[in-house]
């Protein structure tokens, strides 16, 4: 029964690995799709923990999980499984904290930092207004434009990381199940092979060349030239 359970757990784990890779690729795609927002965030130098840093940290941590988890169950090594459980637990915790940060705190931080940096640095203000055709007198102000961009980034980030959070949690459960199974199985005894020498040794050949005294040839034969 444990072998069938282990086979099912391993198959399901491989499916989760594929889904996690796709989710991590989607997380990286957010950076590409909203390049304008991340470019402005980098130019202004948003203080604290900016969205680009949150995205890089979560993408890096979660990208390790599929490669780590792909062989953790197949290895059947309990120490390897325990190390994975510790790392996966930390990743789940960080994902949860990042979701709370992006959902509940970062919007206020961005609006405050954006307004302050635009006001204090005229060079940044001119760069953003000229590059993205926005100003305080336009129909859509610069802060409104990038707040809308941030809302989209926030929405997709929460969706993708929420999926990754669930996948990591399910993989943690699978590895925990595999750890509880009896994976030793029956030991196969190696049959003993009897050693048998082939041919003659030097001593046996020397003994065969000696003729016993009682079996010596007749004198007539021995005296023949």
List the defining traits of the structure above.
76% helix, mainly alpha, 225 residues, elongated, membrane, Putative transporter, single chain
Question: Could you outline the blueprint of secondary structure elements for this entry?
Answer:
Elements: H1 2-33, H2 35-44, H3 51-69, H4 72-75, H5 78-104, H6 106-120, H7 122-132, H8 142-180, H9 202-209, H10 219-223
Helix pairs in contact: 1-3, 1-8, 3-5, 3-8, 5-8, 6-7, 6-8
Keywords: Membrane, Transmembrane, Transmembrane helix
Transmembrane segments: 51-73, 85-106, 156-179
Organism: Trachipleistophora hominis
Q: What's the β-strand tally?
A: 0
Mean pLDDT: 80
> Roughly how much helix do the residues carry, as a percent range?
over 70%
User: What's the tally of helices?
Assistant: 10
Describe the structure in your own words.
The chain is 76% helix and 0% strand. It has 225 residues and is mainly α. The protein has one domain. Helix 1 packs antiparallel against helix 3, helix 1 runs antiparallel to helix 8 and helix 6 packs across helix 7. The longest helix is centred in the C-terminal third of the chain and has 39 residues, at 142-180. The chain is elongated. 20% of the residues are buried.
């Amino acid at each position: 029964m444990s072998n069938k359970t282990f086979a099912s757990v391993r198959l399901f784990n491989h499916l989760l690995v594929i889904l996690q890779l796709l989710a991590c690729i989607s997380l990286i795609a957010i950076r590409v799709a909203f390049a304008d927002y991340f470019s402005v965030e980098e130019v202004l130098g948003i203080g604290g923990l900016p969205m680009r840093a949150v995205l890089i940290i979560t993408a890096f941590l979660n990208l390790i999980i599929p490669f780590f988890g792909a062989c953790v169950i197949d290895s059947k090594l309990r120490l390897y499984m325990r190390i994975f459980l510790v790392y996966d637990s930390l990743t789940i915790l960080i994902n949860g904290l990042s979701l709370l940060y992006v959902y509940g705190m970062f919007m206020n931080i961005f609006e405050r930092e954006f307004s302050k940096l635009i006001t204090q640095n005229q060079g940044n203000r001119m760069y953003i207004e000229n590059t993205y055709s926005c100003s305080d007198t336009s129909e859509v102000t610069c802060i409104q434009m990038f707040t809308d961009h941030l809302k989209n980034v926030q929405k997709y980030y929460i969706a993708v990381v929420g999926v990754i959070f669930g996948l990591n949690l399910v993989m943690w459960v699978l590895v925990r199940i595999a750890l509880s199974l009896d994976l030793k199985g029956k030991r196969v005894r190696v049959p003993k092979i009897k050693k048998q020498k082939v041919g003659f040794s030097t001593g046996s050949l020397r003994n065969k060349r000696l003729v016993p005294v009682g079996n010596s040839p007749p004198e007539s034969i021995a005296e023949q030239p």
